[in-house]
Design a protein that fits this description.
There is one protein chain. The protein has 190 residues and is α+β, with helices and mostly antiparallel strands. Helices cover 34% and strands 22% of the residues. The chain is built from 6 helices and 7 strands; from the N terminus they run βααβββαβββααα. The strands form 2 sheets. A 5-stranded mixed beta sheet has the order 1-2-3-4-5, with helices on both faces. The protein is globular and about 55 Å long. The termini are far apart. Pfam families: FemAB. Its EC number is 2.3.2.17. It is found in: Cytoplasm.
């Protein structure tokens, strides 16, 4: 395996075919590059050149000389493949040191629980091995935030399966209050 800078095209192809958040997409990368020029596309390739993991990291200055790096809802990889996780994050640490990184923050887009619309847990995922692996590599789990925070991403995402559904079908499947709020927003011209 090799830890490398990947091209925007490789990043796009990989994230389109793997479970990822919109903040780990080519569109988001292009936007960051155009506005700030501060994004790094870092990946792992196997010996055949196939991308196995990819992540977009943004940087910001810290204390003049140092940098703070952030991978919003990334990097994207099979987090059940502990050998890949280990290799990626060891290599990432080396890369970041070369770029004067003072601090790195990541919040991988991994599932903890799948819940019903009422919050009832339908399925749970055991991420303890992943958390332990990252901890051994020097990455510290910050716990599960509650409520709103200015220093962390939201934990709960509402996700709709849009496959083969029209906008009208989606609207009909939503609960009454949600439909009403959407219609009021449209009426206000928002």
């Amino acid at each position: 395996m090799q830890f490398v800078n990947i091209t925007p095209e490789e990043f796009e192809q990989f994230t389109q075919n793997n479970f990822s958040h919109y903040t780990q997409t080519r569109v988001y990368f292009d936007s960051r590059e155009q506005k700030q020029g501060d994004a790094h596309l870092l990946g792992v390739k196997n010996d055949s050149g196939e991308v196995l993991a990819a992540g977009m990291f943004t940087e910001a200055r810290a204390l003049k000389y140092f940098k703070y790096f952030y991978s919003q809802r990334g990097p994207v990889m099979d987090y059940n493949n502990i050998a890949l996780v280990d290799f990626y994050f060891k290599s990432l640490t080396t890369y970041l040191k070369k770029h004067n990184c003072l601090y790195v923050l990541l919040d991988p887009y991994i599932l903890e629980n799948i819940r019903s619309a009422d919050g009832e847990i339908l399925k749970s995922f055991d991420n303890r091995t992943l958390i332990q692996t990252l901890d051994k590599l020097g990455y510290q789990h910050q716990g599960y935030s509650v409520g709103y925070s200015q220093t962390s991403q939201i934990r709960w995402h509402s996700v709709l399966d849009l496959t083969n559904k029209t906008p009208n079908q989606l609207l009909k499947e939503m609960d009454y209050q949600t439909r009403r709020n959407i219609k009021r927003t449209e009426e206000m011209g928002c």
